Amino acid sequence: MTQGDWTNLFIKTSLLLGLFTAQGHAQVQFSAPVPVDTLSFGTTFIWAADVHEDHIPDLLVGRYTLLRKGVWLYPGLENAQFGEAVLVDSTLSRPVFGRPLDLNQDPFTDLVIVSGVEHGKVWAYTNQGGTFTEKTLIDSVHFPTGLQVQDLDRDGNTDLIVLGDLFLGLYFSHGNGSFTKIVLPTLSEYYSVTVADFTGDGFPDLAVGGVHVLLFVQQGDGSFLYDSLRSASLVPVGMVVLRVWQGDMNGDSFPDLVTFHASTLQWVPNLGNGFFGPPQVINSDITGLPDVYPIDLDLDGDIDLLVTHPQEGTVVWYPNLGAGDFGPSQIIGQGPVASLRHVLGTDLNQDTLPDVVWADPLSVQVQVPMAIHESQEPTRTKDDFFVTANGTRLKVHAPDRGFFSLYSLDGRLLFKDRLPGGTHFLDRKLRPGVYAAQFRTHNQVFRTKFLMLH
Questions:
Q1: Per the confidence metrics, is the pTM higher than 0.85?
Q2: Cβ neighbours of residue 7 under 8 Å, at least 6 residues apart?
Q3: Whole-number Å distance between alpha carbons of 183 and 247
Q4: N or C: which end of the chain has fewer CB within 10 A?
Q5: Could you give the 3-state DSSP secondary structure of residue 312?
Q6: What is the C-alpha separation between 59 and 48, in angstroms, rounded?
C-alpha cells in the first residue's frame, strides 16, 4: 500500500467512525456468501493466519469427512479471494482443534493440531517459508476437548493449554519447539477454556468450562491455583457450562466472560478483581452447540458477538449497543441446517472492516462500507483523552491518572499501562492496521478512540 492509499483509507475510516458516533449504533452490510470450497463438510476448526508472510491472511481448516479429511491451507489472494487448497496433513484420524502460533521465534506462523477422539494426540507443525514441513508429537491426551494458545508466563514464547475430559495441561514453550508440561488438578470434566487477566494483576488467568466455570488464577510465576471464591461468584454454580469465551463487553477495561450452558448464551461482568456480577442473558433459546466469535464488527468501540445457530443454519450478529446491552440479532449468513457450525471474524481484504468466514460449506462474506457522511472532529481540550501515532510510537494524552489500554479489532487486549495525567510517549511493536484505544480513570470510562498505524 502506498502512503496515498493509507491516507485515503484513514480518511474513509474516520468518516465511517463519525457516522457510528452520530447514530449511536451502526448497521453493517455484507456481500452475498462466496464459497471458498463447496466440498468442505465436517469442518472442525477455522483460523486465519498469514502463513506466507505476504500480509494477506490465509485460512487453516480442519475436517474429518473422507472427501476433505485432514488439515487444509487455503492461500489468501487479493480482495478476499483464495487459491487452490493445499493439504497439510491427511494422516490425522480426526483433527478436532487447531491454532496458528509461533513455535520457534522465526518470522513464520506455525501450527498446533489436536487430533483423535478417545486416544488424542497433540501435534506441532513447523512452517518453513510458507510450507508446513516438520511434524512433531507433543503429547497424548485422552478424549481431547479444547485448545488455547497464550504466553502464560510472559517470556515471549506462546504456550499451550490443552483440555481432555478429565485433563487440564499447560505446555510452557521454550521457544525452540520444545515444551515443559504441567498438569493442573482434575476438579471436573473440562469442556472449554479461555485466557485473560481476570484479576487485574497483569498475569493471564484461566476460565474453564465444566461443571460450572472454574477460575484458575496465576500466581505471577507461571503457576496456577484454583480459586474457589472467585469461581463461586460465577453463575450458575453447578450448571454444566459447555463453552466459555472472553472479551470486554461493557467497556470498563476488564475482561468479562461469555458462556453457553443448556440453551442459554450470556455474558458475565467482571467486577474488576476477578469476582463476577449477575449474568446478562443474550439469548435463552439456542438449539445445538453454537460457535461464538467476539469482535467489534461495526467498529463502534463495543465488542459484538458473531454466533452460529446450527439448527437454523445461520450466522448471526448480536450488536453490542454499549455497556453490554445487546440489541436484536441480525442474520448475516445462511447455510445448510445443522452444517453451519463455525464462524470467524477477520479483515480479509485489508480495508480495516471485519469480514466473516463460516462453514460449512467454507464461505466468506466481505463487509461492504455503509454510506459515508461528513463528520467533524471535536475540539480537544486539556481534559480530553486522545492518542496519535508516529510509526510504532504512540502519543497518549491522559486527562488524569488511570489505565491506558490498546485492543485489536477482535477485542484482544494487546497491552495495558498505568499512566499519570499528562502526555506520554509509548514505544510498541504493532503491525499496520486499526486499533481501539481506551483510557479509564477510577470509575469513569473515556469512550474508545480509534487509531490507524501505517
A1: no
A2: none
A3: 26
A4: N
A5: coil
A6: 5
